[in-house]
Amino acid sequence: MSMNPFTPNFGQVPRHIAGRSQIISDIMNALDGNLGDPARTSILVGARGTGKTALLSYFAAEAEQLGWISINVTCIPGMLEDILQQVAYKAKEFVGKEKKGKIKGVSVGQLFSIEWETLKEDHQNWRTEITKVLDKLESEDIGLLITVDEVTASLGEMIELASIYQLLVRENRKISLLMAGLPSEVSSLLNDRSVSFLRRASNYNMGRIEDYEVEEAFENTVIDAGKEIKPEALTKAVGAVRGFPYMLQLVGYRAWQQAKNKKYINAEDVDKAIVKASNDFENRVLKATYKELSQQDIVFLKAMLEDENVTEISAIEKRIGKPSGYVSRYRARLIERGVIDSPRRGQVQFALPGMKEFLQEQE
Ligand SMILES: Nc1ncnc2c1ncn2[C@@H]1O[C@H](COP(=O)(O)OP(=O)(O)O)[C@@H](O)[C@H]1O
Ligand SMILES: [Mg+2]
Q: CA distances (Å), 176 to each of 2, 68, 202, 337, in order?
C-alpha cells in the first residue's frame, strides 16, 4: 500500500499547494528580480491553519534554488543569535551541495570556514556581524533570505531585527525578510512606532482558498500518490474543506486512510473521513480559538447562528441590542482573529469550517 500523501501537520509543506498563486508569483518574482522589489519585504497574515508556515518553508526552499541562503527562525528570544548560527550551518551545508550545482559556482563553505570562528568569538553587535556575512555573500552575488514565523511585537529582538533590516535595505543589500503571523500580532507589530517602515511591507492576507483550487490540489495529491477519487466523493470533500488549507489535509488524510487498499476513494469513504477530520479540526483548532474569545465575542458570534450563510451587520445590532460602534469594534476583533470574514460590505460569515456547529454545541 502506498503512503498517505496528505500532510495534516502544522508547518508541513503540502505536496500540492492549493491556491496562493498571487502570493507565490509576487514573492518568487521579487527574489528572482530587482533589488527594489517591495515584495522582498512581505508579511503573511492569517489564522491558525491557513498555511503561513508552509509557505515560508516553500519560499525558503525555492530561494535556495535561485542562489539565496535561507534562514528560518521563529520569533522567540534568541532569534538574532539563531540567525547567525544558521548562517554558519548553511555555509557548511553548501560545501556538499556545491557539487550538485545548487548554487552555481559558489563555495560558500570556503567563504566562511575561517572567518566564522572569529565572528562568533568576539561579541560585536548584531548589525556588524550580519554586515560581515552580507559582504561575503555579496562578493558571490548570493542573497540572504530571513523568514520569521509567528511574529510578535512584544519581542525586542523583532523590533531590533526590523530596524537593522531597514538600514540594510537602504544600503542596497541583497536581502529579503519574509514574516508570518496571526492578524492581531501583525497589527500590533505594524503599530509599533520604531518599525513604522514595516507598514510599507507587502501584506498578504491568507484568506479562503477557492473551491476549484481546493479541488485541483486534492485530486492531484491523490492521483500522484497512486489512487483516484470519484467525482461525487471529490465534491463532498471540497464542500467540507470550505477553502481552509488545514482542513484540506485532514479530510484528505482521513479519506486516503478510509479507502485502504482500494484504487478509488468513493463517497462513502469521504463521508466517514469528514466526520473524523471535523473531530480533528475541532480538537486542534476550534477549541483553542474558542478559548481565546471573550464573553462579548461569543455573544456576537451567537447572534450569527440563526442565519444560513451570511449575517447582516444590521441584524446583529438588532439581535444583541448594541449600537453600531460597539458591533463594528467586535466585528473587527473577530476578523482579526480569523474567526469571521466579510464576504461583502455590511455582511459577515464564519471563516473557520465547523465553527458554527461547534458554537451551537456550546452552552
Ligand atoms: N496552500 C495549501 N494547500 C494545501 N494545504 C496547505 C496549504 N497551506 C498549508 N497547507 C496545510 O495546512 C496545514 C497548516 O499549515 P501551516 O503552514 O502550519 O499553517 P499556519 O502556519 O498558518 O498555522 C498543514 O497541514 C499544511 O500542510
Ligand atoms: Mg504556523
A: 39, 9, 12, 27
